[in-house]
Amino acid sequence: MHLVKSIATGLLLAGCVLASAVPKPAPSHKIAPKVFIVSMFEPEAAVWWKIPEFDLLAHNLTVPGASPIYPDVYCTADHSICQLITGEGEINAAVTVSSVAFSPLFDLTHTYFLIAGIAGVNPKVATIGGVTFARYAVQVALQYEIDIRDLGPNYTSPYIPQGAYSPGQYPGQIYGTEVFEVNAELRSLAASFARTAQLTDSDKAKAYRAKYVTDNGIYKAGTQAPSVVECDVSTTDVYFSGTILDDIFDNTVQVLTNGTGVYCTTAQEDNATLEALLRAASHNRVDFSRIIVMRTASDFERPYPGQSAIDNLLYVDQGAFEPALQNLYNAGIKVVQGILDGWNKTFAAGVKPSNYIGDEFGTLGGKPDFGPGTTIARKEGNALKKRGVAKRGRRL
């Protein structure tokens, strides 16, 4: 997404809707929402306000530890649906979600979390304005980085996995936040609900997609009208652009998911949010099998043929920012309604995953289908010897 436009839109919206939420005392009982919408900044959040289906601003509750500019959780009158705004970036997301997950105000043991934000998109897999649902979230920039000009001709990437010696190797140092896997059955259910939505588009976005037409059809998906796609999300606080970096991070997703993940969207917060929810789940405060990661595409993460990476990142208006925001609601409301309508029959008891869910350490039990296995992962995570790093006096 384009930073300048994001900030400008946020400033225009700031205060106009938040002011309508009337502070009320915290209830005497714990709030147990059926759905918790996780937004990252105000434009993403505002598409859920003043909608005909429900009023998220019926209650607003201040949560200690939440973002200083988004200190409140918003809920419907019956508290069945709530929303938090994390603030942008990994640190904001981790602290805000942890604060809510461990807050004594809530009972989140049966709550479904709908992470709903905008993102950049890989035109090899999906298109601007489209809606994506992830099974894997991969922290792609948790690597060594050396300017490519300092590496010499033997390196094609400025990124080297931590604890490794060349690009493309599996990391030898594992932090545990590199990859998260969520419930694939729930993802497919959410996608099926979203496919009933009528998605918004724009004439400018339609014209911009046409620039990705190539003779070999490599960007065919990017030239299509918005649709719902099941593919995976990358996490990094760095806004990046250009086919070189995009292909590098595509390869990172492949390596870290043992070839299973399909890289399609670029976001800042998802691994941080999932780590916070995983830690809460390890204390039986949330159910990690009840997480949906939905990202709508506000921009292509790489330039069209002949365009510069800097133009793609900073200057061009792709015409998809507003449609992507609107499609958070258009698709997301179908997911929320699907959960509520099917609560007694399906969702109260939970959607049992057939795949592994969790992190590389196997924190919640089970055997990860990515990584070197929990024994090696935990050993690498606890290792004092960081493959030569300590010898150079670097931080352990």
From TrEMBL:
The answer to whether keyword Signal applies is yes
Source species, domain of life: Eukaryota
- Note the Pfam families from the entry: NUP
Q: What InterPro entries does the record point to?
A: Nucleoside_phosphorylase_sf, Pur_nuclsid_perm
Sorted alphabetically, the Gene Ontology BP terms of this entry are: nucleoside metabolic process; transmembrane transport
Q: Where is the signal peptide?
A: 1-19
* Keyword Ion transport appears in the UniProt entry: no
* One GO CC term, this protein: endoplasmic reticulum
Single GO term (MF): catalytic activity
- State the UniProt keywords alphabetically: Signal, Transport
> Which family is this sequence assigned to?
Belongs to the NUP family.
Entry function: Nucleoside permease that transports adenosine and guanosine.
- Name-wise, this protein is Purine nucleoside permease
Q: Which organism is it from?
A: Aspergillus pseudoviridinutans
